[in-house]
């Protein structure tokens, strides 16, 4: 596999596009077919082999644009005419020798077309090396006794003075590849990579020479050194930018991932308001994963009913004598869920995410009815189905916010929806069970439990605090099939996964 | 009891179809893409660069192509156009819930088998005459046992038909997202190796690899295994220029002015929050309607009366109706 494609795929994977090895092989075939000449052709071709959903396509185009960005190396100020002359004289003898290499390098770039730095990496590797050597032997004379070790520096100096953007970009890409820039993970590594790249490009040696020459007695050399110092500073700036963009490409998501991981296991009540947006994205991502995991409808054999059509079909090879019997199968029903959420201040945030979570699972949980309460209880299914989560939650809080009264809420639920609770229904109650010393009305919960398939009670408080103060959790827990302490997003996810798995 | 039916049929002299010819004539990939674009255009299918590229790659790599996009953007039409270009027959398999291999792949002709056994009952005596004892009779019968499970009694369904087509075919598996997961899994063998295993007959390979298109409306996520085996093309709604070109090709009678206006109008509808936004097929229908009504340009009354061609929900019609003046005005002023 070519280096470019490998790194491009690395960048894509970093952007959360899942790419399997067989798709990599496809991409390689596409690359072999279309080549680098036509940028759009390449983009369309690769996108067909690598990005296979809307979200992936979007990520693909973003990464493609950044990865194959033709960011031409802004040439440093071209050397003034006097210097040019001086260079020409110095360079005289090696012009011809270099010529071929230059040309090879240029054709290399041309064939890779507009694909810029990326392709430079591939072609550069082959072309650059011999050039270094060939140029080196003759350049040595200029630096005198210093010998071959300075050739890199000298070549860099010449490139800088000539303002040869294409070659500088090539050298930069080459050095970046040698330094392993695509392995960059954290922003703290930027400095290190930048230094390594500059070293590989010969900038360090050039620096040494500049220091020496400026202090030296040779006036021409000193003048040249001063000029190069400026050019070299420009180079440093560009390398820094390059490392920056590459880090965005290869590690842009690393920090986000760490943060998401941390947020997912933190207690929801403690999460800063500013992180809510990330949290919502996270919930959606979790929901999507669960949907794809559980979107297969399971079937269960219905015992005792023969499927005549399929049996005949299966036994046709035995002249219709039914050796194999095939039984009718029924699709397993999706669980029906009723969600009763406490939206009073203390648990509103957790409710928000559970509501968002379950309503994001619409594809695998088509029958979710949600109720919200503080003291009065009402149905909010429509709100969450039709409006974005922020709006829905805002309206819910507006309507049902206030101080908690579980007894009242259960009474409302009894009137509103108890009749719809049947043996297929899973009832999930989310709340802290802090009833402000009111009547808990556990008898209604008991009725619900008798009718429903099961009742889950999710309490964001830690188990050790259940029953302390005005908490009536121990009373409720008696009438629940399971009561779970559930404070963080990860714990929520576990509950929902469990709900989907035991749906049958 | 395996009968060899067309297994490994030699490729023979390759059909010189349009796509391949276009490919051979062109020297660079860009040229082949351009010529595919022209060929599609000649069939009245105006393609975007992405579509032409996808077609070029799919047929060069001989891989199935999964086409996704909103309904009515020409996913099915693409397969039809390719069939017309290549001169290969289009074999279409419409997917739905409950589709199984008996309907997709093959079926035995039960009634014919039964009829034949009845008719041939008398012959049985002749066949068995002279056979001494049960063992010999069974041995004698064995010589004939594949008779009723041979090709004559096999009813090929679309998938098998596509594999059997001697010159190759264009196989369109339409709306794969409507089929069950089991069927999706069943397709994997066909998609990766262009072969199918039938218990009674053995493995059947394609005589000529068919050009396979799968379309999906994204009603559910397809499995990764399926996606992995296909190239993926997403066809979005076209931009204004492309849609004008499509209308020009499909409804040549529509005058320039009308065409520009109606496309602008439809494009502005797509930006609205509607239950179902009009797709290209609706634009074409609408253009035809307007031509029938001898319209030369849009006006409010005309649009109001024909809106039901474009929008399929009463809610949407009402919502658009409220803003009709604005929308028509904008479409008319937008004479670029």
From TrEMBL, chain A:
Region ranges (Disordered): 78-143
Protein source organism: Camelimonas lactis
Annotated Pfam families: VWA_CoxE
Ranges annotated as biased composition (Basic and acidic residues): 124-136
Biased composition (Gly residues): 111-123
Compositional bias (Acidic residues): 87-104
InterPro entries linked: UCP010256, Uncharacterised_CoxE, vWFA_dom_sf
Protein known as: VWA domain containing CoxE-like protein
TrEMBL record, chain B:
Cited InterPro entries: AAA+_ATPase, ATPase_dyneun-rel_AAA, CbbQ/NirQ/NorQ/GpvN, P-loop_NTPase
Residues of the AAA+ ATPase domain: 61-239
Pfam families in alphabetical order: AAA_5 (PF07728)
GO MF annotation, one: ATP hydrolysis activity
Protein name: Dynein-related subfamily AAA family protein
Organism: Camelimonas lactis
């Amino acid at each position: 596999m070519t280096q470019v494609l490998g790194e491009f795929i690395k960048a894509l994977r970093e952007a959360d596009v899942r790419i399997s090895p067989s798709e990599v092989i496809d991409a390689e075939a596409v690359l072999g077919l279309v080549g680098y000449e036509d940028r759009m052709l390449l983009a369309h071709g690769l996108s067909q082999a690598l990005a296979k959903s809307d979200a992936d396509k979007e990520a693909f185009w973003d990464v493609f644009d950044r990865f194959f960005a033709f960011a031409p190396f802004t040439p440093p100020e071209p050397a003034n005419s006097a210097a040019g002359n001086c260079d020409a004289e110095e360079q005289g003898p090696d012009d011809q020798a270099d010529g071929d290499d230059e040309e090879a390098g240029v054709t290399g770039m041309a064939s890779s077309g507009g694909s810029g730095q990326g392709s430079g990496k591939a072609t550069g590797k082959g072309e650059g090396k011999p050039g270094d050597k060939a140029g080196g032997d003759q350049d040595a004379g200029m630096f005198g006794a210093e010998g071959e070790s300075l050739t890199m520096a000298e070549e860099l100096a010449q490139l800088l003075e000539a303002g040869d953007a294409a070659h500088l970009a090539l050298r930069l890409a080459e050095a970046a590849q040698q330094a392993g820039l695509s392995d960059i993970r954290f922003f703290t590594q930027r400095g290190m990579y930048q230094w390594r790249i500059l070293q590989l490009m010969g900038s360090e040696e050039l620096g040494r020479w500049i220091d020496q020459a400026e202090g030296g007695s040779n006036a021409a050399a000193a003048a040249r050194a001063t000029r190069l110092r400026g050019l070299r500073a420009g180079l440093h700036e560009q390398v820094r930018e390059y490392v920056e963009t590459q880090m965005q490409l290869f590690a842009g998501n690393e920090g986000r991932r760490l943060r998401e991981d941390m947020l997912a296991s933190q207690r929801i009540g403690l999460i800063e308001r500013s992180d809510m947006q990330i949290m919502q994205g996270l919930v959606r991502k979790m929901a999507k994963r669960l949907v794809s995991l559980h979107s297969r409808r399971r079937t269960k054999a219905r015992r005792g009913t023969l499927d005549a059509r399929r049996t005949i079909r299966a036994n046709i090879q035995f002249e219709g004598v039914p050796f194999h019997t095939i039984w009718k199968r029924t699709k397993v029903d999706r669980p029906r869920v009723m969600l009763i959420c406490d939206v009073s201040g203390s648990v509103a945030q957790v409710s928000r995410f559970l509501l968002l979570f379950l309503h994001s699972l619409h594809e695998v949980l088509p029958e979710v009815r949600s109720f919200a309460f503080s003291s009065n209880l009402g149905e909010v299914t429509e709100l969450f189905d039709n409006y974005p989560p922020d709006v829905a939650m805002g309206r819910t809080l507006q309507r049902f916010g206030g101080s908690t009264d579980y007894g009242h809420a259960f009474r409302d639920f009894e009137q509103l929806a108890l009749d719809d609770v049947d043996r297929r229904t899973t009832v999930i109650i989310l709340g802290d069970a802090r009833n402000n010393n009111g009547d808990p009305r556990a008898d209604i919960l008991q009725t619900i439990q008798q009718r429903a398939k099961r009742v889950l009670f999710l309490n964001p408080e830690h188990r050790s605090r259940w029953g302390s103060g005005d908490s009536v959790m121990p009373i409720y827990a008696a009438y629940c099939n399971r009561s779970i302490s559930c404070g963080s997003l990860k714990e929520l996810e576990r509950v929902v996964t469990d709900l989907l798995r035991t749906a049958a | 009891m395996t009968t060899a039916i067309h297994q490994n049929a030699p490729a023979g002299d390759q059909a010189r179809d349009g796509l391949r010819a276009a490919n051979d004539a062109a020297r660079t990939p860009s040229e082949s893409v351009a010529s595919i674009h022209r060929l599609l255009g000649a069939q009245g299918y105006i393609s975007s660069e992405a579509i032409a590229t996808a077609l070029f790659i799919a047929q060069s790599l001989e891989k199935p192509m999964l086409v996704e996009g909103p309904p009515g953007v020409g996913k099915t039409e693409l397969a039809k156009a390719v069939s017309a270009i290549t001169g290969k027959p289009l074999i279409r398999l419409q997917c739905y819930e409950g589709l199984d291999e008996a309907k997709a792949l093959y079926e035995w002709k039960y009634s014919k088998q039964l009829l034949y056994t009845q008719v041939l009952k008398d012959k049985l005596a002749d066949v068995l005459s002279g056979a001494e004892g049960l063992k010999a009779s069974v041995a004698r019968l064995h010589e004939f046992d594949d008779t009723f499970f041979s090709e004559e009694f096999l009813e090929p369904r679309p998938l098998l038909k596509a594999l059997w087509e001697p010159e190759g075919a264009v196989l369109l598996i339409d709306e794969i997202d409507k089929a069950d997961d089991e069927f999706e899994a069943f397709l994997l063998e066909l998609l990766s190796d262009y072969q199918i295993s039938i218990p009674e007959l053995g493995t059947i390979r394609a005589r000529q690899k068919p050009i396979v298109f799968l379309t999906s409306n994204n009603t559910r996520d397809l499995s990764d295994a399926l996606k992995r085996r296909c190239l993926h093309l997403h066809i979005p709604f076209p931009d204004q220029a492309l849609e004008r070109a499509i209308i020009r090709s499909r409804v040549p009678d529509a005058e320039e002015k009308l065409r520009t206006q109606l496309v602008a109008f439809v494009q502005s509808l797509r930006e609205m929050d509607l239950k179902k936004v009009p797709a290209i097929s609706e634009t074409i229908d609408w253009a035809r309607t307007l031509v029938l009504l001898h319209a030369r340009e849009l006006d409010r009354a005309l649009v109001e009366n024909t809106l039901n061609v474009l929008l399929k929900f009463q809610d949407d019609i009402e919502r658009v109706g409220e803003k009709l003046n604005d929308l028509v005005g904008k479409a008319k002023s937008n004479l670029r």
